[in-house]
Amino acid sequence: MGVEYSFSVYPIVNEKSTMKEQDKIWPIIVRYLDNSIDDNELLMLENWLDKSNENRRALHAADRILKASQETTQESLIDEFHLEEDWDKVFSHINKASPEEARARVLHFRKLRKRHQYFSHALKVAALVLVALTSVFFTLQYAPQPKEYSAEPVLKEISTKAGERASIELGDGTRVMMNAASKMIIPETFSANKRSIELEGQAFFNVKSDRSRPFYIHTSNTVVEVIGTSFDVRSYENADDVVVVVREGTVELRNHDDPDNNLIVNEGYKGTVKRSSGHLSLDLIEDSEIYFGWMDGRLIFKETPIIEVFKDLERWYDITVQYEDVSDQLINKQLTADLKTRSFREVFEVIQMSMEIDFEIDGDEVRIIQ
User: Fold this and answer.
1) Mean per-residue pLDDT, 163-183
2) Are 351 and 335 in contact (CB under 8 A)?
């Protein structure tokens, strides 16, 4: 997005002023500036100034323009109308005439001076407008032109290590709870028409509703689009499934490479995208705590393959689980358990009793044995 330069020309009247007011205000401004304004006009000018700050700034600008050109304007008017010479001629004729003729000539001269006064005001108005328009023209003509270049948005990364969780609030009011070993990339400022972030790992989103700016979550091959809702997204790099579980509202789930391949996920449902095949599936969830319990410090498994359990425990406790030498029989086992926050030794003791496996612990490494 390029940098914009804006040039503001203050209107002589605000948006509520009529064309009739606009026609009247210029002569009044000129008479105010040359101290020939009467009380009624002064009241009109004060009312006009009270309507907006733009009107006050316009008067100030007119004063500066007129003062800058006043000396030259006065000299040119004197040279053009020869006022001193004309006065001498009239005065000499008056002295030679009879009293009646003199009075008639004086009245006639006063009318001429009054016409000249109004004509002089009109010239000043025209000069003032001409100077203002010329100033604006040259400002726009020779002002530096905006440079067009594309600026990459400033991004920042928020991440949690294994064994950590984090709760953050984005600039738009959206609240996010990040699970362990997760990463989120967000712009420093959301754009005017959308809110986009990138996620690797697991996070629960409570998106602030804004229909003019949809919220997009990008994973390695999936886009989640929402407006305002709460849901969980699970997209770990070493897992084939990208899973979205909606607690409240509705989201749209689709493939990066195939936008037409999409899925609407409503409240109480789970949407899944297979990374390997791009296949989308929708399932009704029976126990939401399985998907949301981690935010309360609970690890809940329901017929979960033991290998997936080990991966979760590695992220949750920041440990390494070694199971390369175990039999296929053990690999195929599944775990159903609600493991509240406790030491990982206690967790493996529960697994040991329920699945008849043995283990050894060496620091932060757990080795499964048979």
Assistant:
1) 93
2) yes
Task: Tell me which DSSP letter residue 181 carries.
Answer: T
Q: Which helix (H) or strand (E) holds 175?
A: strand 175-178
pLDDT of 200 higher than 70: yes
pTM over 0.85: no
Q: Checking DSSP bridges between strand 215-218 and strand 222-226, what pairing results, if any?
A: antiparallel
What is the band of 167 on the pLDDT scale with cuts at 50, 70, 90?
A: very high
Q: For 51-66, write each residue's pLDDT tens digit.
A: 766 676 677 667 666 6
Q: Report the C-alpha gap between 49 and 273 in whole angstroms.
A: 64
Of all residues in the chain, what percent are helix, strand and coil, respectively (each to 5)?
A: 40, 30, 30
Distance CA 336, CA 145 (A): 67
Q: Are 275 and 221 in contact (CB under 8 A)?
A: yes
Average pLDDT estimate for 308-313: 91
Structure tokens at 157: 């990364």
Q: How many Cα atoms are found within 13 Å in the side-chain-facing hemisphere of 168?
A: 16
User: Do 245 and 202 touch, CB atoms closer than 8 A?
Assistant: no
Please, what is the Cα angle at 165 between 162 and 167, to 5 degrees? 150
Task: Compute the C-alpha angle 305/308/310, nearest 5°.
Answer: 110
Helix (H, G, I), strand (E, B) or coil at 214: coil
Residue whose token pair is 């920041």 = 318
